[in-house]
Amino acid sequence: MIQYLASIATQGCIFSIVALGLNVIWGWAGDLDLAFYGYLATGVYMAMVTSIGRLPPPTEYILGWHLPFPAAALIAIGSVILLASCVGAVALRRLRAVYFAITTLSAVLMLQTFVSDYTPLFNGYNGLYGMPQPFNDTLRLSPEVYPFFFLAFCAGILGGVFVVLERLSASPFGRALRAVREDEQAAAAFGRNVYGLKFTAYALGAALAGLGGALLAASQGAFNPAGWPPDETLDLYVAIFVGGMGNPRGVILGVFLVIVLLQEAVRFLPIVTANPSFPAATGEILIGLMVLVVIRYRINGLLPDLHSTDTVPPRRGAGLRVERGEAVG
Amino acid sequence: MAERARVLLEVRGLSKSFGGAQVVRDCTFDVAEGEVVGLIGPNGAGKSTIVDLLTGFARPDAGVVRFAGGEIQGWPPHRISRRGLVRTFQLPKEWPDLTVMENMLIAAPDEGRETLWRPFVAARQLRRAEDADRERARAILEEFDLLTARNARAGALSGGQKRLLEFARIAMARPRMMVLDEPTGGVNPILGDRIGDAIVGVAAGGGTVMIVEHDLAFIERVCHSVIVMASGTVIATGPFSALRSHRAVLDAYIGGAAASA
Questions:
Q1: Chain A, window 197-236: residues with a beta carbon less than 8 angstroms from a chain B beta carbon
Q2: For the residues of A150-178, what is the DSSP string, one character each?
Q3: CA B178, CA B167: separation in Å to the nearest integer?
């Protein structure tokens, strides 16, 4: 039982990192990106082909390196940033709202078809296996102990990501992204490079998907195209929405509620029907109900986005008339 | 004063069509540094398109816009804004889910604060710059009765308050030249006067202002000179008093028959 709890806590940490990445793109910059699961999958694949070495034929794939985990994770993140830059360069320039969503959905469907059918890339439909446990060739922990080490490792990385994003969220960068989300014409009128800001957010969000992908590769050991149906992205959106769009704390809460707690809890439902998809379907229904409840009673989520509050009393007599019309250019 | 002062904005032969309709035709005018200029004309004269063309929100088909010595026609809006030519919008475009104070802080010139790594290097310096901006923002908000609302969502303000915030933001930006698209629409007369005073104050401090406005009494009170447009082209320029008896202006405003009667 405790092993099981460690494993779902690990999943929670990994998906929190991934959802925090999507939160940068959607929660801050306001872009409804449906390609996001593709970045997670790319991260998983790239971490695997740089870690697993050469598997026996007929398995075929690119690279086949045997790098230590940190190097593999960095390559995974770099590849994902590269891929997201290509998609973002096309989709973020002029397309907005539903047009952006359609374009990114096409991108992820193309990617999935390509990865599934072009075997020399990542072994097609059959996918890859044999991901080594990070650091365990030096640590040599027993199979009973290792999951706890890996959980601590993932939790540590989540903690680091969280601290960085909390800082960014309250920074002028986070504020500018939200301004672009709220009204990009006004943001441009006040000198903000809308495309540049959106692109930076997109690359940052995708990088976190790549990092989460590398960790997911290590936690699962094997991966294939059936493991990343693009509609899984919607669960991430639900987690962010329920937890609190924009607020990193809310996002983590949302992931543990929606993706971990709900989906694991339904496994323990009494069997009322022989249909094997009953628990999963119940989970989806509960997620839907949760969204409705949040829309009705807490539209900004359980932990709404934080706004800086200005409490300093103003100094009198510093009115506008003393303002100087200085040049900014 | 306009004759002697340095020309800040120079517009030559500016034209723009949307589909088959030529909305702006061969417009030419100058705005001098430190001047307050009104841009007036009947509905559909092309005033708002001029504002869009000057600030990069529309690309001119032909013509030259020279600002502070360089040609800026066809530049994207953010580059023009960073060069010091900043506009407001006819319908206020606040960032609704951000607080009034956050709206003000974003309006301040960014000065490299918005890079990814900035909160992690020299964080104290960043905080000091932000505090200075907040102090300035409070003073401006107080001027327009928005100080008590500074922590409210901008989207929750009334229509008139949003208009005031629109002006407060551009005052916060301290641009070299501000282009105001109907700054007093929907604002009560007292606060409208306060906006007028603030515009005069901006000019006294060396700033340059262009105002698109239908309230001619406001234009007369605040502006040094006026540009009159009708059906896409400039029909007259000069001080307001000289235009009262200008034939083409009367024709444009009242209609040919009424003016000749």
A1: 197, 200, 204
A2: HHHHHHHHHHHHHHHHHHHHHSHHHHHHH
A3: 10
